[in-house]
Amino acid sequence: MKKLAIAGLTTALLTTALVAKGKTVTTSTTLTDEQLDTLVFIYQEEKVARDTYITLGNMYSNQTVFANIQLSEQEHIDQAEALCDTYGADTSAIDESNVGEFEVPVLQELYDTLIAQGTQSELSALMVGEYIEITDIDDLEHAEEGMPTDVVNVYENLKAGSLSHLDGFRAAIDVYNNK
């Protein structure tokens, strides 16, 4: 079992490294349309987090948690996009440089709602961050179901990052509440 996990991790790391270098990676595993949609959804959901943190971080620049975590969210976006590339999920309509713009309507609505909530107050903005991370963790857990090992490994890594981000937002909320 340990050798299988190490082999899966090695494959995921090599795939990510090759994709990052602009190399095309193919896989013998074929995903269903629903699984491909899930890959794109997670990719876009990571962008929601990053874009929200960029926007709220600009509004509340004294809260460094937004700036710190948005950099990590870019890494999450890159990892999720690499999976899309590996499995041939179409991301051609997605432009990461357009902050606050999403192809998936429910994610556009989510972003708009989160920004509206976050603009109410600094504390509300921190609570939006907490909510995003809780939602990401839950969505990643569901997205893993039935996925190949390399996808599960990447999603586990993303969940670990989200747990760390959740701790960061909760710490910032505690500091804010104890001013």
From TrEMBL:
Per its UniProt record, what Pfam families does this chain match?
A: DUF2202
Q: What residue stretches are annotated with the DUF2202 domain?
A: 37-173
Where does the record locate the signal sequence feature? Answer: 1-20
Query: The organism sits in which domain of life?
Result: Bacteria
Gene3D superfamilies of this UniProt entry?
1.20.1260.10
Q: Keywords of this protein's UniProt record, alphabetized?
A: Signal
User: What's the name of the protein?
Assistant: DUF2202 domain-containing protein
* Origin species: Sulfurimonas marina
